[in-house]
Every structure is written in structure tokens, then in C-alpha cells.
Design goal:
The protein is mainly β. Helices cover 7% and strands 36% of the residues. The chain folds into two domains: 2-112, no CATH class; 135-186, no CATH class.
Amino acid sequence: MSLLRSHEYLKPNRAYYGQGRWVYERLVEPNPNVFMVLGGHNPGVAYNIKKTGDRTVLELLSDYQNGPEGGQGFMRFLQFDVENKRLFVNTYSPYLKKYNFFKPEEDEFILPLNLKPIEKRVATDYVGIYSRTNELIGKVSKVPSGQTATVPYPNVQLGQTYPWYAIARDGFGGLSRSEVWTFTGE
């Protein structure tokens, strides 16, 4: 199931705003995995419960930025009770240690929630298993950026395949490992 977040989606009167209708028609409606859309930009709060085919889509607006001090830290909290099929919505400001910026009935409510488990199947035509070892083949230090580092592979025999990988470290402790590659001795 997917939740979409859009900068602007609804107005406080619950109508679409700006790109809202476009998001609904092109992203929400045709994609059956979308169950919720969250939006802001417009000062206020609102929600819609939409039926789209056999699913319910929840659309929520919350924006407190026009309040004193840029909204005084008010945030919208969503608590998903999947077992009981409910979404609890609350608004709280840790700055003020207070619930509800707007009227309690606008900032605290319970919505229906029907999340269905999705059966997923992964299919592939290839599985590769590589074992990295700690056997050091060679080491090169202080290779300038953009230059090539080379290390001779010892005791290479004609027709034999040899695995290798590289580890690069920078002066700040960063580390990167390559994939495991192979070559055949010539």
C-alpha cells in the first residue's frame, strides 16, 4: 500500500487545490495501491474519504504555518491501528506542550482504515553467490583522484578463472567495495 505526499492537494473547504486534481486523476485513481494522500501549503485542516472503485482513499490537509511563530511547532500525528481498521489523527505542539491548533473536532478524529496485505512474488532467472575473502592480493596507496590503480595478481595460470574485488578508502574514513569480478588467465 502506498501513501502519497504532495506539497499542495486540498484547500480547507476540502476542494482540490493547485496540482491536487492532477495528482488525483493521474496518480491516485489509476493506482490501486494508493490509500492515502497528504498535503499542505494551504493554512488549515481538512480531510476527504473517497471511494475509488472498491477501495477507500483518505485525503488529508494539515498546515499550521500561518499561526504565531510559524505554527508554534504543531504537527499532525497519524496512528495506524491496522488490526481494528482505524486511523487515529491528532495534532500536537511539543513547543507549547499542547494539543490542537484548531478546534478539537478538526484536529482530532478517527478515520476508517482498510489496509489489505499485498502478496508479493519475486521471480528471477539468475542467482549469484560470491564469497569475499580477506586474502590480500595487493595494495596501492595515495592514488590521485581520476587515476588508475593496478596490482599484479600472483601465480596466474593459463585458462584458470580468478575472482577479485577492490576496497577504496579515503582520508576521512569513507569506504567503498566493488562487486566481485573475475578474469581468466591468458
